[in-house]
Amino acid sequence: MFFIESERLRLIPLTHEQLQLIQADRQTMELSLGLNPSAMLIDPLYKHEIDDAMINFWLPKTLEHAEQYLWYTSWEIILKSTNTIIGGMGFGGEPNEKGEVETGYMIDGNHHNKGYATEALKSIIQWVFGHEKVQAITVRTYADNLPSRKMMDKCGFALVDDTDRLLTYRLKRPTS
Questions:
Q1: pLDDT per position as a tens digit, 70-119
Q2: How far, in Å, CA of 144 to CA of 95, rounded?
Q3: How far is 76 from 92, CA to CA, in rounded Å?
């Protein structure tokens, strides 16, 4: 099983079969990965986005792009100290013609303000820029989501667009 790790976290990209399991019963999927069952507190807005992504993006795209599923799935964020899922990340697909990828994330409300989202994002940035084709990473967040905006600053992202209070941040590939 492929995963990436940081000091406190392990990020596991779910296969199509694991997504099917999570859709049927999250606890069954967690146990199949040898994880302790989670009891995540998820904001209803993000719950809706996750449900929509599952049905309209992750499941169909991981089936269609089985070899490149890492770009089309949910990456579960596991807190190593408790062996439980505390959030998720994902991409909007493979790099586009400009070499850009978009990522998004969600952290369990029980684990906010502990630096886990920043740590996970820094790990995914390192992994993404390990792919030569990727020239930039974008993230969209709402203008009133101050913790997310602060995290963009910490991770070196620059604000590039503000459309109807939806902010777009971009991080360019570091030059060597």
A1: 999 999 999 999 999 999 999 999 999 999 999 999 999 999 999 999 99
A2: 28
A3: 15
Report the amino acid identity of residue 72.
Answer: Y
Instruction: Tell me the residue type at 93.
Output: G
Here the tokens at position 17 are 């079969």
pLDDT score for 176:
67
Q: State mean pLDDT over 117-123.
A: 97
Structural fold of domain 4-172: Aminopeptidase (3.40.630)
What average pLDDT is seen over the chain?
95
CB 135 within 8 A of CB 171: no
User: 100-107 and 4-5 as β-strands: parallel, antiparallel, unpaired?
Assistant: unpaired
Cβ-in-10-Å burial (0-12, 13-18, 19+) of 33 comes to middle
Query: H helices of the chain, where?
Result: 16-24, 26-32, 44-53, 59-64, 116-128, 146-154
Classified as helix, coil or strand, 74 is strand
In this predicted structure, what is the pLDDT of residue 103? 96
How many CB atoms neighbour CB 29 within 10 A? 21
Closest listed residue to residue 38, CA positions, set 92, 109, 142: 109
* Strands 100-107, 136-142: pairing kind: parallel
